[in-house]
Every structure is written in structure tokens, then in C-alpha cells.
Amino acid sequence: MTELLIIGPRDEHVARLHRALSAHDQNWSVVHSADAQAALDRMVRRSADVVISCLATAEECEQLFAKVVPCAAGAIRVALLQSPATTVRGAHQTLSARTATEELVPMLAAAAKVAKEMSRSQAMQKIMAQFQEVPSPPQLYFDIRDELEGINGTPESLARIAGRDPALVARVLRVANSGFYARPRKVVNLADAISLLGTDAFLGLVLAAHLYAGLPPPGLRLDRLWEHAFEVSTLAQSICRLEGGDRKASSDCLIAGLLHDIGLLVLLQNEPGLYQPLLMRSAGDEGELVRLEQETFGLDHGQLGAMILELWNLSAGVVTAVAHSHALAEPRPDDSTASIIQRSVMAAECLLDNRPSMETGQQPQELESIPEAAIQRWVDARNQLGFSGSVA
After folding, report:
1. N vs C: which end of the chain shows fewer Cβ within 10 Å?
2. What is the pLDDT of residues 33-74, one digit of tens each?
3. Which CATH class is domain 2-130?
4. What CA–CA distance (Å, rounded) separates 61 from 281?
5. Any residues with CB less than 8 A from the CB of 132 and at least 6 apart, and which?
6. Could you say which of 3.30.40.10, 1.10.150.120, 1.10.10.10, 1.10.3210.10 is the CATH number of the domain covering 215-384?
7. pTM of this prediction?
């Protein structure tokens, strides 16, 4: 039985959320406590899987979560705030209390799923318990989703909403004008760019732009990291098309490519003293970095990033691709599309990170099981896109 514990005054919103969660899954036990101390006392006796704070302020949520960790280290901590732009330290998710219940329930279901998966990994449970700053989807993401689900959702109406964020607009236009789409004329209109990319890819870009704007990690140039993510996503799309992937698979490749280093950013933000030396020791060698991460934390940044994206309720194809962005997963004959997405992102990352060695005929270890003809097709795609010089 999965336990979701709601803490805060029982107003109409909390009551509605309680009813919706209780009806969502018969294997869930949904408990409400209006008193924070009573909830903490309860967790001492019986740990919760998801703790949902509906307290009035960010400060109250932070104080609560600091006390939750000793009682329920493996719990996913979610803050529901009237002002979601506020950062809540100690929260794994910060969501708007104004978000429609039908939007909140899938997000909280994803949190419950992640909590169960964390219970099987002591390393993941330990590091997630310690983290104080974990990115959440921005309110803009939910506003755009609401518009999409309404009867009047069009590329033009989405562009009006997205236009609130000039940095997002610039990133969307940059991707729309990438070599993958090969448009005869430059795309300068945001609505045209959204039509070209498709709504799934556009939503992925909203998440990626928010991530890079909201996590300015110490010791990293975000412009270089974004450029690397942009190249990986663009090349992954090209490889996916060569491998027979459909439009949805290509969209997932774009999203996974843009977000494949989210775990790196979160580790650097939360554990700079431990993580910066690993980046320096690895000297740009992704394989060595993954080895050092496993040695230090018991997991790598791909696995951590996948867990966070699963918490964001992104597609299984994106989550799997990020989890295995530095090594091929076991083949999945029952899901060839997921395999194409994962292989495309991993290959793009590998081909871009190993450009110097491949010029001298050295094949990266990650690609040893791939036929040479396929690798050559991917290398040709990389060269046609004009990518040169490692920016990772």
C-alpha cells in the first residue's frame, strides 16, 4: 500500500484533492492531517511515501520538510503553494495550488511511483533525502498545457503565453532553425516554430529553458552546456529518423537530448564540494565521469536525471533515454520505439563527445556493439549538421 500524506488546513481545495487521490488508485492510502506536528508524529510510527505540504508559506513548508527527512527519508516531498515561483528548499516538487486537480493527480501519481522505485535503491534514497534544491516544472508549463487542452488552443495562443519569457522564445526559435529541420527560410515567428516542432517538443523546450535559467550551477558555463544539449538533441533527432523513428520518437529525442544532463546540474547545485572535483578529474571524459559518480554516490547523473524527469511525469521514452544516455540499455524487443529513442540519444552524446578520437579511427567503447555501417550513417549526419569541436 502506497501512502500519500496531505498536511495543511482542510479547505475546499485540499478536500477536492483528497477525494481525487483516494479515487485514483485503490492501492493508495490517502491521509490528511491539519496539524503538522501530528503528521510528523504519525510518520515516526509509519513512514509516508509522498508528503504533500499545503501549508500557507514557503517558510512553513521548508520547516516541515526539514523535520520530515529524519522521519521519512525515502518520501517524495511536494509543496503546493499559492505562489509557485517561490523556491522551497527541501521540496522535490513545488507546484501551484491553483493547478487544476486533474493536472495535479498525474503529477502526484508520478511522485508515488518514484517513491516506490527509490525504496529499491539505497543510494537514490540517500541522495534525494539530502537534496535541498530540485527543479520543478514552471507554472508556464502548466499554463500552456491548460491552453492545449482547451477548445481554443492554437499555435498562436500558445505563442502569446510563451511570449512572457523572452529567453524561452529565443531557444524555441533556435531549435526551429536548426539543421535538422532544414527550412528554406528562417523561422522568425514563434507560432510558426511551435507548429513546426509540435506541441510535445515545444513543452519539452519549456522545461529545458526553465531548467537552464533556474539552476545556475557554480563552476559551469551554462551557454556551453546549453549548446552541448542543443547539439545532442539535434543529432539524436537525425539519428532517430535514419533508424526509422516516427515523429513522436523524434520529439522524445529532442526532449531527452535537451534534458540529458539534468542530473549533472542538480548534483552540481546540491553537492558542489563533492561534484566539482569529479568534473575536474574526468576532464571531459563522460565515461570516466560516470565511473567517478558511481564510486562517489552509488549512481550516475543519467540515473538521477531520469528519476527527476519521471517525477515530472515525462514519457517513458524520454526517461529511459536519459537514464542510459552514456551506455546502451539491454535491448527491449517488446518496445522498439523506446530502443530507437535510447540508442539515438546515447549515440548522439557519444559521437559528439568522442569527435577527436573518431577522426583517428578509434571507435568509442559505447558503440562497440553497433554495426559499422550504422555508425558511419550517424557520423555523416553529424557532419552534415556542421557540428565541430566538443562543447561538453
Report:
1. N
2. 999 999 999 999 998 999 999 999 999 999 999 999 999 999
3. alpha beta
4. 38
5. 89, 90, 270
6. 1.10.3210.10
7. 0.89
